[in-house]
Amino acid sequence: MKSLEEIREIRNKMKDTIEIRKNNALGTNEKHILVCAGTGCTSSNSLELIENLKKEVQEKHIENIRVIKTGCFGLCAKGPIVVIHPDDIFYSHVQPEDAIDIVNGIQNNEIITRLLCKDVDDKIVEKIHDLTFYKLQQRIALKNCGNINPENIDEYIGNDGYLALEKALFEMTPLDVIAEVKNSGLRGRGGAGFSTGMKWEFARNSESDVKYVLCNADEGDPGAFMDRSILEGDPHAILEAMMIAGYAIGASKGYIYVRAEYPIAVHRLEVAIEQSRDYGILGKNIWGTNFNFDIEIRLGAGAFVCGEETALMRSIEGKRGEPRPRPPFPAVKGLFDKPTLLNNVETYANIAQIILNGSQWYRGIGTETSKGTKVFALGGNINNVGLVEVPMGVTLRQIIFDIGGGISNNKEFKAAQTGGPSGGCIPKECLDVPIDYDSLASIGSMMGSGGLIVMDETKCMVNIAKFFMEFIVDESCGKCPPCRIGTKRMLEILTRITEGKGEEGDIERLEELARNIKASSLCGLGQTAPNSILSTLKYFRDEYEAHIKEKRCPAGVCKAMTKVVIDKEKCKGCSICAQNCPVGAIHGELKSPFEINPDICIRCGVCIEKCPFKAISRK
Amino acid sequence: MEKEKTVNLIIDGKECCVPSNYTILQAAIDNGIDIPTLCYLKEINQIGACRMCIVQVEGMRGFVTSCTQPVSEGMIVRTNTPELIDARRVTLELILSNHDNSCTTCSRNTNCELQALSKRMNIMDIEFKGEKTQREIDNLSPSIVRDPNKCILCKRCVAVCKNVQKIGAIDTMNRGFNSTIGSTFEKSLADVNCVNCGQCIQACPTGALSENDSTNEVWKALRDNEKYVVVQTAPAVRAALGEEFGMPIGTLVTGKMVAGLKRLGFDKVFDTNTGADLTIMEEANELIERLNNKGTIPMITSCSPGWIKYIEHHYPELLDHLSTCKSPHQMFGAIIKSYFAQKENIEPSKIYVVSVMPCVAKKFESKRDEMKVNNLPDVDAVITTRELAKMFKQANIDFVQLPDEQFDVPMGEATGAAVIFGTTGGVMEAALRTAQDILTGKSMEKIDFTEVRGSKGIKEATIEINGIKLNIAVAHGLGNAQTILDSMQKGECKYHFIEIMACPGGCIMGGGQPIKTAKQRATIDIMGLRAKALYNADKALPIRKSHENPFIKKLYEEFLEKPGSHKSHELLHTNYIKRQLYK
Predict the structure, then answer these.
(1) DSSP string, A417-470
(2) Most A CBs within 10 Å: which of B177, B178, B206, as the mutation test of the A interface?
């Protein structure tokens, strides 16, 4: 247990440490080697690297070098990442055996050039903040990620951690807190974008002896890892925000619902909760006030639908994760039938900053209707796969081509998928739309939780729609027929289109199904399920038509649609192809060119392999 | 009492004033607006799953489900816009696209809510064809058949099993298109804690749940010249059978039923009520014995086989509280194959006893090993009210036109006490009528024990007889039974005698009775009407106390000696077994 004064002392004591990370040496000669220990870099041996660095420092009795494991730096494509402060040096693709060179380099004041990376313009960059990737970002939610040791509460406290809680408890009433959040314009980062302050107000206004504060960490969109990175890099920020929320709405119990597939995040949350309890930050009569708060972790088994708020609550209750119609809204009747506030991880990650810096500061960032920043997980055919945080209102082009470093393998951009399976595909015509909740919705996609998958020219958009529909069909809970059966029927239609069996009227059938599934489904999963089809139909209708009418896949992706043909010039009429064809699709007279009957051919390619004259090919 | 709060709203242009705690659907029903539903079962299943009851509310985004949306002042609701009609059609077509649409060979043909809705919505073709769920039919239970291929996942069965009966033998498994309703580890209903009450059948809008049909066995017995086929009918059957022929709910059709059974070719048509009178003799005697000899108290009735299986699975440690009496039709079967066989000089093994019951659990009960005497089952086949109706129809019997006929003598005599067995509180009332006379040694004037009548889930009373205060309770529906059993386990139970029926409402609402639609269940007091028919029948009978039944008196004189005799125990009493939750 630590008193408020002791917490303040820790903050003071940690000041130098934090300043070094901010590249202010302050007259000390201390060096901090920060190594990413997020999921991505960990899987590329960054933990072994940390061990090696520590061993090196220890064995050489170096007093002024500290090795710190941190959360994600964001530039995952270049991991494992090492940053050296206060000099700001950025090393990429660092291997465990590089430890010796790195330590020697620091001692000799040398930069290991082979570990430096190239920027978009192919220039070698030494310092992290010179990278275009970071230059255009504004980090609020990711403030501590890659900056502090997430398993050390003192580092969090040192970087103004739990200061917002202190401010809320001692300088603000619960209504002040709600007003501040409301005025900030913060909208839910889980996808729907509802006003966070209003949500808090509703929960505040429900009368009950017991209320709950929940954190939705059931990040389920394919390609999305914003929430995971925040939990891995800055778990205390989530605990602090939940406590502030608890104070604001009058709750003393919180649950974090997190996927079991995020073991590092779960572990760091467990460590953070334990440390907070040890320090007396979580617990009873916090800092001598009459405010009590404690947090428990609940593991989800990975069902996508459990990210839907009512399903999530049922899952915490130990029931089958199925959504239910609202009303009653969770703010009135939620977990265990008590008033409940649920926010997403990234939403919470903004709270302490809003309380500390004020709503006016926050309102100054972003667009008219969408304030603040948004974290995106860049994936797919993009050079800088990773995590970025940008002010609302930047364009997709800036994210993909400036921060993201453009399309990989020098290919052309074709589309970007935002919002995961509930979102839509955005074509290049829309690259310059400033991104916020409303603009994305207006072009047929959605913000979603922030997954951003980039697709190059080689992708077949019908196949992409099919991929997302497969995901939806797998993840539908099955409660309501439009989603349970309707998405299955849409997938069946898409499958037959990609198999070259598309029928006249299939596009219209897809549209009719999509319209009704959107309108009739019970929950957000079903209501947004057709978006990938609708957006691809909107922007890439010609591809659907080519598949159905011409039995042709313009991107050459759909196997069944490729034709196997014999070049009459090259064919010598040896009949080897016909002898090897498993379905008897090839006919001809010896010594004159053979022919393939496309109605029988299954495009297996055996004939292509067997032809001694290379006369057979796919077209 | 405070005046009920009301709100005003407009539905399809009609001004409606309804209680403020109503849903839009309830408000619509009360105001003659018929919003289609599939998963809705009033107060049991209001989950907004089927998306049929969607409506549009001015100022609200998208469609809202009227079964879950509360009314509010000034609400303007539309239930029939072209968008809604189209959305419902597409959803319905999707359901049909994954439904075994073999209507002509379905047990629910012409009595299926899905079929009726398809007709009503003018579905002439299913546009969205595709893969269909194909799962094995579970017909291993003697009582209930589950056909998952006809299931539309409305979850009405799950809700009634879990929330009303508080058993939870079935629930949703898997997800998405692979969702299915099933039991623990996908076992058969025969191998889990299903008690065979059949309330799930009553809840099912389609043919996914039905009774395990025994009509063919009965037809076979009727064709067999070697067999002497005797039929007996439970009291609740006569209060509901007419519904299967379009007669109003609550029409008593005893005479027509007997006439029809005679035309089917049964050698004798007896009344299970006679067995009920016998049960009262044995049960009242058992109660008095227990009270006098410090036996296990409270004693709980044992007429309801669903209830018996429930306590065997869930509270096996309380089995000693059960009366050892067999249920009336089993007692009566045993008497037919002993006393009657002797009297008529028929070889007992040649007698085939058919019981017509409002119950599907009776099918299971009749097959229990404990229900045999000298290796002969007391009852050979059980058919439900619904199955009897089917047999009448097969035999070209115009039920409505039948004359009234009488049960066969001498075993057809029964009292008013027996006829009310069919409704909750009836066994208790019948037992009290006899117990008060035995304890006082005189014929008491009080016959109607109205304190145990009515639809309340748990009815309690203290009856004073000859200075003895008897605390009694009547529970119907296993959820209510659970409340009482839990209080017994905690040692908080103050009752001497408890009547428990598995089905909410008692036998008149049994799993074998005519199936009513969700709308009928929401708008008609089915239980009240059927119960009234039985109470009227009781009132109209000259003898209303079981021990005054002349046949019963003769039976004891000539055959059984006295209640609780050695012979009685051999023929009329049983024992119970502890069961695991699943095999």
Answers:
(1) EESGGGSEEEEGGGTTSBPSHHHHHHTT---TT-EEEEEETT--HHHHHHHHHH
(2) B177
